[in-house]
Queue: 4 jobs
Job 1
Amino acid sequence: MASFLGYGRKTGGEAGGLPLPPPKLRMNHASEKEDEVYCRHAVFLVRAVLAMLEVDSLSKYKRGFDGLAEADILDLGCGTARFLHGLALEGMLPRKFTGVDVQAKHIRWCRDNLSGRGNFHFQHVDVQNDRYNPSGRATIHGQIDPAHHDADFVMIRSVFTHMRTAEAVQTLHEVRNIIAGDGRVYLTVNVAQNAEAWTDRPDGRADGDNLLKVQFNKAYFENMIDEAGFGVSGFAENVENQCAYLLRPV
Ligand SMILES: C[S@@+](CC[C@H](N)C(=O)[O-])C[C@H]1O[C@@H](n2cnc3c(N)ncnc32)[C@H](O)[C@@H]1O
């Protein structure tokens, strides 16, 4: 059967001229262990972002960049740099891309395999997170290398979905401190109305898998956004099974 990009079911190849990560490093849905699914989801993410940026461009608020290819992008919680793979597949390699993550092995793979392929940079931060870096010793405050401040576009996909409230608040404030004044943040999070302020595993299937699927009360999360100094420029109810916000500094 013909498949997306002709990859079939094999794993560990290349996409858009960039090496793909070994399946064991891939997160998100288990099906992403197959190159075809990983690539399809990466492209879907890029298109979801473009759709929100398109709506944003109709607003009165001026953005500091036009297309993603012209942007300086910071991907916080980059994992395997899946967003960069999606951009490569869409022919939109950015002017600059910086991936930051608390997992050293993911940053190592990105550095070893992607750094030389463009103006791409990867930074490990030893930020404490009960799911991904329980022994981490820092908060996000002051951790991002100043060389990577002033990004036009900050991607934070499926990261607030694994955070306690304090970490989410600190992250929003830190991103507000370092983003370009006319930049944008795209983030995904589970939010629901008429819900508890914060809960892990809102489906009630607690099984000791810490911070697998965090959910915030929608108004509670939007107050956090406001208090960090952002306004909401866009909202989508369901992108890859999570809610997505586009934020602008205010
Ligand atoms: C579910 S994965 C998503 C990876 C990637 N954004 C994607 O969509 O493919 C969540 C990632 O966030 C990272 N992470 C969690 N807390 C973080 C923090 N405070 N700062 C940076 N990265 C963090 C994890 O190590 C993990 O790689």
Note: Confidence is low (pLDDT under 50) at residues 1-9.
Job 2
Amino acid sequence: MGDENEIVCVTGAGGYQASWLVKLLLLRGYKVHGTVRDLSDEKNAHLKTLENAAENLQLFKADLLDFDGLLKAIDGCSSVFHVACHVLSTTLQNPQVEMIRPAVEGTCNVLKACSIAKVKRVVMVSSIPHWPKDQVMDEKCWSDKEFCKTCEIEGYSYAKTEAEFQAFEHAKAHGLDLVSVCPSLIIGPLLQPKMNTSTLLLLNFTRDGVEAIENNDWMAVDVRDVAEALLLVYKKPEAQGRILEQGVICKFSSEKLQKLGWRYRALETSIVDSIEDFYEKGLLDKILISPACLYARAFWLMKLITYTSAVSL
Ligand SMILES: NC(=O)c1ccc[n+]([C@@H]2O[C@H](COP(=O)([O-])OP(=O)(O)OC[C@H]3O[C@@H](n4cnc5c(N)ncnc54)[C@H](OP(=O)(O)O)[C@@H]3O)[C@@H](O)[C@H]2O)c1
């Protein structure tokens, strides 16, 4: 798998993770159909500036609830990277309508369109499961949906779990080749102008510090490493089902992905690159807080983060 003249589709192309994936695919010679919700929105303009975008990137307007729009984007593609999802936010008025339905029904729409278009493989981005702290997490671990419903008002974990579950049900019923990739907290520089939820978290940690933090194992992965993992699992026919990927760590097994050859960068690199990027974008003021102080603060905070990456396939 992975003939580099292929046409592949990336949903939610203008988002944080998807932008890095589109960049990587274009660099490797793929032709990319990217879906965005608004073709004229400036927040997607960075995609047009990526190397090879002029010749090889075509954008399509498609909401996840717009089946016809998705089918148009997916038609003619040999594979689909389903990345789009409303990511955890505290400002939702109606989580069922704004988060859960688009994630679950939208994923089903993507999978149905993939079946109709007869794509060879679908790689979807899910999320690491909620799992007891004292137990090793591996590819057999799924979040308890009922528990998810009780732990966040916004329903993000529930939406991701149910969407991934439904995707595998569809794949099984229709003989579709599906691999799901479950990252932990994603950090690293941004290509898009708009902050996403996970980088905003790192920015807030770095800029404002925190008075208290939960004594828990946090896990993080670099956005560029996730893009490489997505392409790797697409290209390796032996990649099947779910895989968890991991950096340095304990309670998290990603043996399956590492056996495919996935490598990840050091936590320090991700933090330094993130902070440099925050400076470049004017999000951190060197005059107010010295760089040394910021790095120290970020490293101290990130010491609490178990550097891990999660991909399930
Ligand atoms: N960031 C993390 O720490 C993290 C961790 C684990 C898993 N993930 C997963 O990784 C994927 C990408 O996350 P991200 O951090 O890159 O988020 P992001 O920057 O917020 O990107 C999300 C993308 O999904 C699109 N989208 C949202 N709702 C949509 C809908 N109803 N129809 C069509 N497109 C829709 C957004 O489009 P608009 O710009 O138009 O809203 C945006 O392009 C998601 O599946 C997320 O669940 C992320």
Note: Residues 7-184+222-265 form a domain with the Rossmann fold fold (CATH 3.40.50.720).
Job 3
Amino acid sequence: MLPRAPAALGLLLLLLPPPPPGEATKKPTPCKRCRELVDKFNQGMVDTAKKNFGGGNTAWEEKTLSKYEFSEVRLLEIVEGLCGSSDFECNQLVEEHEEHLEAWWLQLKKKYPDLFEWFCVKTLKVCCSPGTYGPNCLACQGGSERPCSGNGLCSGDGSRQGDGTCQCHLGYQGPLCTDCTAGYFSALRNATHSVCTACDESCKTCTGPTSRDCGQCEAGWVQEDGACVDVDECAAETPPCGDTQYCENVSGSFVCEECDPTCMGCTGKGPGHCKECVPGYAKESGQCTDVDECAHAGGVCPRRNENCYNTPGSFVCVCPEGFEEAEDACMQPRPARDEATEENPAPPPSREDL
Ligand SMILES: *[C@@H]1O[C@H](CO)[C@@H](O)[C@H](O)[C@H]1NC(C)=O
Ligand SMILES: *[C@@H]1O[C@H](CO)[C@@H](O)[C@H](O)[C@H]1NC(C)=O
Ligand SMILES: [Ca+2]
Ligand SMILES: [Ca+2]
């Protein structure tokens, strides 16, 4: 018997709230739960192996060490670390089967060193050995040694579920995942192995790795001198991009990018590739640059005394501070006068509405 553990577990289980009803729908399969438990158990064995009795090798220490190694004390330590305190399902599983775990630990470990095989497959019958599936643990398609020729996943592999059929990895197809899909070619094929390798990006189908091995070209490539070469879509008679965009030829395709905002039409990125400039800009050593209208001889501001400020793409005319705007000039300020008394004879505030 495990000292104290059952009582402690029972108390723990009583104190725990029942699992929320929603959990039931997405709970892990019994096999997955068993596998997790075994993983934790194996980890517990690793952790406790490092523990206690470091160094020294006197006869007494060796004797004590081997005593601990197979002891119920060590088993209890491992079992205590198996489940999180709020993991109801895990604690239930341990409680239900701790006699099994104890029997394996004390008597069967030598004969059945793989706890997963002994506990989850043979004893609880909730899992299958790797490479087998279904209620009776039948061999997967392609055999239990290398299911699906090593190129796919066997449905239900290692569980008591599934139908043993293959879900092939990318590039493979067929019941045993030995055939290559379009876009892949067979790089190796013998009685037991099949390797499919991706074609060059220019091929839709191929018999080898380069653009010269294409059967059909991929969209965006054309057959030329025995190879598939990229189409320059930008050179098409009707350009594929808009008036405010330029076209960039890329492998298998093309992209349209917006012109610089200073351009009216362009052939590439930035203000240096404009066809024409937008109003307010002019080409200056090949680049569309803001025109400094204020620098024009004679000035651009129509009114007398007016100040000119250059802005990107334009300019503004404003009267100097304190000047007053008139039809055709900025007027010098008149001498100051008492505006408050003339225009705002402020009445004393009424208190009645407070
Ligand atoms: C098939 O090819 C694999 C991978 O190269 C090789 O390991 C295996 O021995 C080959 N089997 C046969 C039967 O030739
Ligand atoms: C663009 O077009 C030319 C065809 O003139 C092609 O040879 C070239 O490789 C294409 N692709 C890229 C990414 O430049
Ligand atoms: Ca292209
Ligand atoms: Ca300007």
Note: Residues 30-50 form the longest helix (21 residues).
Job 4
Amino acid sequence: MASGGRKAVVIGTGIGGAGCAALLSEKGFEVTVLERNSYSGGKAASFEKDGFTYDTGVHAVGSGELGPLGEINRIVGGDLKWAQIQGNRIALGNRVARYPLDYGSDESIYGILDGVGVLPENRDDCFLCFKDLATMKPEAEMEALETVPLKEYVDKFTDDPMFHQMVNATCGMLIVVTYFTGSTSEFIYCFAGMAEKANLSYPRGGMGAMARAYLDALERMGGVVEYSRPVEGIIVEGGRAVGVEACGRVEADVVVSNMGLQPTVRMVSDHLPADYLEWAISLRSSYGAVSVKYALDAEVVPYPMTLWMPDINDQESLEKYVGIMYPVPSIPDPDLAPEGCQLVLAGAVLSPDPKKKDLNNAVLDRIEATMSMLHPGIDDHVIWKLRTDVAYTANISGRDLGEVIGLSQDVKQIGKNRPEPRLPVPGLYIVGADAGGRGIGTEMAAESALNVSEMIAEDLA
Ligand SMILES: Cc1cc2nc3c(=O)[nH]c(=O)nc-3n(C[C@H](O)[C@H](O)[C@H](O)COP(=O)(O)OP(=O)(O)OC[C@H]3O[C@@H](n4cnc5c(N)ncnc54)[C@H](O)[C@@H]3O)c2cc1C
């Protein structure tokens, strides 16, 4: 759809902002992107240190090029490349199961259930539940499951403790809330979507390569990206958003914010109905995460991705260790570490509140204890180690909280209760993980970019 040279200003270069900017440019908009950081990518950025390329978070991409991130790349002519992550594992204490990419097949499900040790008498019920969760449902059925907590749904099939622990941990990994509040339909959308596409992937060059590919494509189409240029205000005139203040006025026909819903509504609070503002500010974020990034001088961890949880029957393990996800990005993409070396990212979930420093440090200590127990000798191979807390995430994304995803995908904030990307101020939209998409973290932000760019093109046609 041609846009007749309309101007768009996009605030932020997270996946949502970078993707939407490139898509709008492809639709003919004149696009200017303003980013407060000196680099792109937001929560999905990558940095270099001593020949290692590491990510802000602990990362993998649900469906790689078969999902929305790949779709944006194709539409805008980006140069993003992918590597599949094969040979994944899930472990409850010392019971370990392979987690094949097509984990929705009957053979894979039985392999996983036997590996993690569900009770023999519960095996068939657990199978039915796993199969059900790994199968996409018709839209009406998904809608009916939006407000059903995942635990309640699983309870209908089985009370097997291992199975419950596995589903809760998987919910924490995919939508970063517990299964007590996580929406069943949102979990199925993520879990079944991944099983069907069977293409868990990692972007070559690190997670930051995704936003960079979109922004490079944008610049090739004539768009402008300005770094270290924080937006201080959104200009509203005659009841419409007409640009932003960012050490000077930048005018536009449409303002697209990737700052998150709450920071955005705070900037235009005088122009919003009081009840809308109150509702928007009351929305909850997903949990946060801390991570330990290991730059190693040897290939210590032989598995590309593991989700490990302490055995719920082992009190000592529960006290000393913590459930972690630890991808080894230099296995799918060896260019991320010098030859013979290895990059390991180990992360755990906790409150997104950056003020809880002691909690952050305690969980970080447990991650290190867990990695040393699972991979004895790892500490002898450390070139450097970086501990990142939720304050680090909050600082990178420019938000008050260091949440992993954005607004949480819990039963109260999904479907008709999810914010609309069109704000009550005409000409102002939000894009990114907070609105306009579904799915896992970066893929939800990318789906939002696809949907919001279409919406804007239609609104301004
Ligand atoms: C530890 C961790 C692990 C994760 N693991 C995964 C994973 O394995 N798989 C997955 O898919 N997702 C994962 N995620 C989630 C995923 O990274 C995020 O959900 C996604 O990247 C959010 O994208 P976004 O577009 O909403 O914006 P953000 O990433 O929040 O970016 C917002 C951008 O806006 C900019 N900005 C903010 N305010 C201003 C301003 N005033 N002026 C200008 N610019 C501004 C920020 O600097 C930033 O660049 C993880 C996240 C974390 C923190």
Note: The chain has a mean pLDDT of 96.
